[in-house]
Amino acid sequence: MTTTTHLVRTRRFLPLFVTQLLGAFNDNLYKNAMVLYVVYSVYNSEAAEARFSAIASGLFILPFFLLSALAGQLADMRDKARIIRIVKACEIAIMIVGGAGLVMAWAGFEVQQIAIPLMLAALLAMGVHSTFFGPIKYAILPQHLHEGEVLAGTGLVEAGTYIAILAGTILAGWIPVEVAAAGVVVTALIGYLSGRQVPPAPPVIEAQSVDYNIWRSSITLIRNTTKHRQVFMAIIAISFFWTVGTVLFIQFPPLAKNVLSASKEVASLFLVMFSVGIAIGSMSINHLLKGTVSARWSPASVIAMGVAITAFHFVCKAWTPHPGGALMDVSQFLAEPLAIPLLLCLLCIAVAGGMFVVPLYAFLTTVVDKSETARTIAANNIVNSGAMVLGSLLAVGLSAAGVATVDQLLLGAAMCTVSAYLGWLLYRAECAAA
User: Fold this and answer.
1) Is this model's pTM higher than 0.70 or not?
2) Distance CA 83, CA 73 (A)
3) I want to staple 304 with a disulfide (CB 3.0 to 4.6 A). Which of 210, 286, 323, 352 is the partner?
4) How far apart are CA 292 and CA 297, in angstroms?
5) Pick from 268, 331, 313, 275: which is nearest to 35 by CA?
6) Domain boundaries in the chain?
7) What is the CATH class of 10-199+211-433?
């Protein structure tokens, strides 16, 4: 029996895995249902659509920047399983609010004045939910898993997350928005039940006071992380990766509608290809490294990602708009001669991205002491979220400056060269510490 097969049959891993899957699924079902509905049914301007997509991404990310230090402290100093139960209970209330906003938008009732603000408020609250759950999903692994299982467990969580993103994204693009509203509430209820099955994970250090000053605690957390050179380099490299990812995800819906003349189902298909690719890359790197945590393949992986983004840009530039201005459905889109090359470019971007980022997350949970893992993940989330907010602002700024959505893709390609350099520095540090 392989390590992967063994893990999914154990209670010390399976309930956490299922809870994480449901949370990622719900995040993406809600967020994409909201963004796709607003982009395709409310606004009729490429700039307005890109701006709304960026605002939605920024609101979801903002709590990670502000509250990750508090989340990391609580996860290291309190029972992680208990925090999971509290967080998943809050998700039910959040999704009731968000579902109400979706239904109001669908019914055409006070869309601009009430429905959209309500949906964005729920998205912000889901960001808070994910901020407090985020440090736990990785920090709990070295506490519940054996040493040789951590990379496999991290790869499973990462691959499972993107499979869940895939499922949520598919449904968001294909089901009616009013059905999505009911689905997010039901999923939150199931997630709460699975979260209650996670075994206890008490703190492995003596009780300490929690610093509720978010600015001071955030600065202290990041400063402490710099003591571990490999961990700090991994955090910086991951941050650049997610900046690239943020720029790409912001661009997909308006790019599909305005550049490719494609429907929201095709925009959903783009996100599907991205999610499948990340899952493939996550599992592939575990096989290549044979369970060893190493950044050996990271520089080459992210260079390949940059090449694939550049190829995606040129395919989009060569795309011939659909005659008559009508939006193509999936079958019409796939009949286009450049459709398959475009989807293959997306798949390659994501596979390379998964191969790059998974070992770096494993670094964060294996290099430091188990008593510090949640705070290390929290420090990573702070820096990552700051980078992603920067990516959102860059996308908004470029759109405001009149830079075409398709040309903004080159920003992501350029950032990959920086990530490759950081990955190389990390590998050097890893070799020096060996």
Assistant:
1) no
2) 12
3) 352
4) 12
5) 268
6) 10-199+211-433
7) mainly alpha
